[in-house]
Amino acid sequence: MTTLFKIATNNYIKSVFNQAQRNISITSTLHLKKINEIQEGKDLVIYGEIVSSEREPYLLKSNHSKACPLCATGLDIKHTDVLILSQFVRKDGCMLPRRITGLCKTQQKRVTYLVAMAQKSGLMPNLTPAYSNKDPKKRYEWKKYNKYFDETTIPFKL
Amino acid sequence: MSALKRVQQWATFARIWHIYNAAWQNPFHSSELIKKYLMGMHKPIYHPMNDCGDHVIVINSADIALPGDEWKKRVYFHHTGYPGGATWTLAWNLHEKDPTMIIKKAVYNSMDGNLQRRYTMQRLHIFPDENVPKELLGNVSNEIRQLRPMPKRLDDYPEKDVKEFPKVIDYPKDYVLR
């Protein structure tokens, strides 16, 4: 009985995995994609587009094999370094997850804090959700005044 | 006496006018700096009984910066003297009512309470923005260096600079841009 069962399961597994599962394709399946939305009168046209990365020519070269991209630079990043911090957020100011940034755990947490600090100081007003009024001076009550942060208060130390 | 020494002599005994841009500066750290110029403590002839203080013009006092959440944690106390006459005003509330008040109080509190303090304060001129009367601005011969660099907003950089700034990471190959 057990042998019969074994044969049956083996056959079943074979039938599942013998299906033609092609892992080879002639053209590359992985591309950087961009989704565009265009309003044409009443119609909303949404179409995907394969694009090449704008960052590629300006990418920093690192000699480290193991270090994460930010550790490899050896920079001490402050919350006012918006040109670096803006590379880790989406268009709406939302932090990119670790599987996309490829940073180490500590750096990912630190950058998350630094991005929040920069946003609270109103240093990245163009990277905000669509419903935001964009101008830090129009914020609610105490939030409209200039503030700065101390990076040593971040609980994640390098 | 060389020309430099002679000018130094004049500058020490005359009342010099300094200007200080308070934009993005901590008012409580700045007050320790401004106080020295107001009282003349930067001069070699300084003595508490020697009236050798300078004038200081503070501009952009509306754009001062406080650390963290201090705008809603710092409280200014006032008592009218009557029972129940105590009021507590938050820093952002006070700043909304008068954008020169926080820096004025900071400088006033940084000095010792003696008879000279009120007269020293008369040499401090605070303006919420950059509009300083011309007759005051004409006297200015020195700018006091800021304590912390003014941060630059991302939308103030030219688009080309943002695009061509060295990039730390690239998007993964299967990423959908958003």
UniProtKB/TrEMBL annotation, chain A:
<keyword id="KW-0687">Ribonucleoprotein</keyword>
<dbReference type="InterPro" id="IPR001648">
    <property type="entry name" value="Ribosomal_bS18"/>
</dbReference>
<dbReference type="GO" id="GO:0005763">
    <property type="term" value="C:mitochondrial small ribosomal subunit"/>
</dbReference>
<dbReference type="InterPro" id="IPR036870">
    <property type="entry name" value="Ribosomal_bS18_sf"/>
</dbReference>
<protein>
    <recommendedName>
        <fullName>Ribosomal protein S18</fullName>
    </recommendedName>
</protein>
<dbReference type="GO" id="GO:0032543">
    <property type="term" value="P:mitochondrial translation"/>
</dbReference>
<dbReference type="GO" id="GO:0003735">
    <property type="term" value="F:structural constituent of ribosome"/>
</dbReference>
<keyword id="KW-0689">Ribosomal protein</keyword>
<dbReference type="GO" id="GO:0070181">
    <property type="term" value="F:small ribosomal subunit rRNA binding"/>
</dbReference>
<dbReference type="Pfam" id="PF01084">
    <property type="entry name" value="Ribosomal_S18"/>
</dbReference>
TrEMBL record, chain B:
<dbReference type="InterPro" id="IPR036899">
    <property type="entry name" value="Ribosomal_uL13_sf"/>
</dbReference>
<dbReference type="GO" id="GO:0006412">
    <property type="term" value="P:translation"/>
</dbReference>
<keyword id="KW-0689">Ribosomal protein</keyword>
<dbReference type="InterPro" id="IPR005822">
    <property type="entry name" value="Ribosomal_uL13"/>
</dbReference>
<protein>
    <recommendedName>
        <fullName>39S ribosomal protein L13, mitochondrial</fullName>
    </recommendedName>
</protein>
<dbReference type="GO" id="GO:0005762">
    <property type="term" value="C:mitochondrial large ribosomal subunit"/>
</dbReference>
<dbReference type="InterPro" id="IPR005823">
    <property type="entry name" value="Ribosomal_uL13_bac-type"/>
</dbReference>
<comment type="similarity">
    <text>Belongs to the universal ribosomal protein uL13 family.</text>
</comment>
<dbReference type="GO" id="GO:0003729">
    <property type="term" value="F:mRNA binding"/>
</dbReference>
<dbReference type="GO" id="GO:0017148">
    <property type="term" value="P:negative regulation of translation"/>
</dbReference>
<dbReference type="Pfam" id="PF00572">
    <property type="entry name" value="Ribosomal_L13"/>
</dbReference>
<keyword id="KW-0687">Ribonucleoprotein</keyword>
<dbReference type="GO" id="GO:0003735">
    <property type="term" value="F:structural constituent of ribosome"/>
</dbReference>
